[in-house]
Design goal:
Largest sheet: 9 strands, mixed
Helix content: 25-40%
Shape: elongated
Structural class: alpha+beta
Oligomer: single chain
Radius of gyration: 29 Å
């Protein structure tokens, strides 16, 4: 069998985090009742006219700057004409001839090392509505809430050669856009959607094979499975002497199978022409520099700073910067208590555990950095032991409870009075002669039982380190 190389390029659609749509004042909030967020403009009523949302342009330019793009200071909108029930105007306002950003790049890192992925362009456009298929009634319904929601489409060069590179590239895009605050990039809610253009060719060949485009990919796992499946499907066709047809395919993740939707259209099929109802977008040097100056610290820079400024290991820095919410919480809590490694441990340990147990992402964190910092101080000073600290943290996580108030109200402060502890431990020794005999006979594990009995007698409020020390002294 011949050796084949996979060639992949991505078209990534990102819903921008504006409060209103791209060409009208309707809200963009996710989850509203069908057709609640609509008006004559976003439902394509005759005579309605679009008005460009300036924040859309600001977000698009900021993303372009973060992805090392050239910014097109004079850009235009175009009409992309096609009929589909969820497209109320029978055209989509997009950018073909003069997109807002061009010629960018991002550096990814995989098991094979570092690699630069080119970005061909970023353009602004409006989203279409959503079809809802009711199999019980055998009808299709349309919800126009999403119609007119602002999108940017990030078009890569065909520089990726496998699923690992694709996921690394998507993760890099998602991190940059989330740090900018331009989108939440939630694949499961459709605010970030990737279409995979894939072809295969004989290894070493300079010519591209026939590509297909796969849609309906709403998770990194689905993207990985779809790439592997389509690669194998195309290789099987070529090995049996059959041609690969250029087409759009829909991925069914439950069946792990893709099927043809339609032949792949080219630009001329959409009869693009300049949008007559919108003026060109002109970006001044002054505004461009203002947007450049407003860019936040992105993940790569933050990762390096955490290792240098706070002395965090690579693993800690990588986990903390994997979410802007985690990074913000870490910095705010550290600024209060000045214990970066201990703050990091609570975020990477108990915080991630409780998030996973509840099926939540870091964005769901609702406790304050002040309460986290207070708990770090309480545990570090020995005012509460580790077991109590975890109990208190659950209250902070679920209810943003003030840890100091909770500890006092429930009498959880550690007992550090040596005289009191000696008295309790002496009583435990007296009541457990067999364990004492075992310990003195060389069975050191017996001490663990005696420590446990002491902690039980102290209702968990003793310092385990002090208990161990006093116990061994008395034994």
């Amino acid at each position: 069998m011949k050796e084949y190389e996979t060639v992949i390029g991505l078209e990534v659609h990102v819903e921008l985090a504006t409060k209103t749509k791209i060409f009208c004042g309707c809200p963009t909030a996710f989850g509203a009742k069908p057709n609640a967020h609509t008006c004559p403009v976003c439902t394509g009523m005759p005579g309605s006219l679009p008005v460009l949302n300036k924040q859309v342009v600001a977000y698009a330019v900021s993303v372009g700057l973060a992805l090392n793009c050239e910014i097109t200071k004079y850009s235009k909108f175009d009409r992309k004409n096609y009929f589909y029930p969820d497209n109320p105007q029978n055209y989509q306002i997009s950018q073909l001839y003069l997109p807002i950003c061009r010629n960018g790049s991002v550096e990814i890192e995989t098991s094979a090392g570092k690699k630069t992925i080119g970005i061909h362009e970023i353009h602004m456009e409006e989203d279409a509505g959503k079809l809802v298929h009711d199999e019980w009634e055998d009808v299709s319904l349309v919800d126009y809430n999403r119609s007119g929601v602002p999108l940017i489409e990030i078009v890569s060069e065909p520089d990726m050669r496998g699923a690992e590179e694709v996921i690394a590239y998507l993760d890099k895009l998602r991190m940059a856009i989330q740090y900018l605050g331009a989108s939440d990039c939630k694949l499961q809610e459709g605010s970030m959607r990737a279409d995979v253009n894939l072809s295969v060719r004989e290894a070493g060949s300079p010519d591209y094979g026939t590509r297909t485009e796969m849609k309906n990919l709403n998770s990194f796992k689905a993207i990985t499975r779809a790439i592997e499946n389509e690669k194998n499907r195309q290789i099987d066709l070529l090995e049996t002497g059959k041609p690969v047809v250029q087409e759009t395919r829909r991925w069914d993740d439950a069946k792990e199978y893709s099927y043809a939707m339609r032949s792949k259209e080219d630009a001329q099929d959409y009869r693009y022409f300049p949008e007559p109802d919108l003026m060109p977008v002109v970006i001044s040097d002054t505004w461009l520099e203002e947007l450049r100056a407003s860019l936040p610290e992105l993940r790569d820079a933050k990762l390096a700073r955490y290792k240098g400024q706070y002395g965090l290991p690579d693993y800690d820095a990588s986990i903390l910067t994997s979410s802007k919410k985690l990074a913000d919480m870490f910095e705010a809590a550290t600024q209060i208590c000045n214990k970066p490694k201990k703050v990091s441990n609570w975020l990477m340990g108990e915080t991630m555990r409780l998030l996973n147990e509840n099926g939540q992402e870091p964005d769901a964190i609702s406790f304050s950095p002040q309460n986290l910092a207070k708990l770090v101080d309480l545990a570090d000073s020995g005012a509460v032991n580790n077991t109590v600290a975890k109990e208190v943290f659950e209250q902070i996580f679920r209810h943003n409870t003030d840890p100091e108030t909770y500890v006092e109200a429930h009498g959880l402060r550690s007992v550090n009075d040596e005289g009191e502890l000696k008295s309790v431990i002496a009583q435990v020794i007296q009541e457990n002669p067999k364990s004492v005999e075992d310990y003195r006979g060389g069975k050191k594990k017996a001490a663990g039982f005696l420590v446990g009995q002491t902690m039980k007698a102290m209702k968990g409020k003793a310092d385990p380190g002090m208990v161990n020390r006093i116990l061994k002294e008395l034994l």
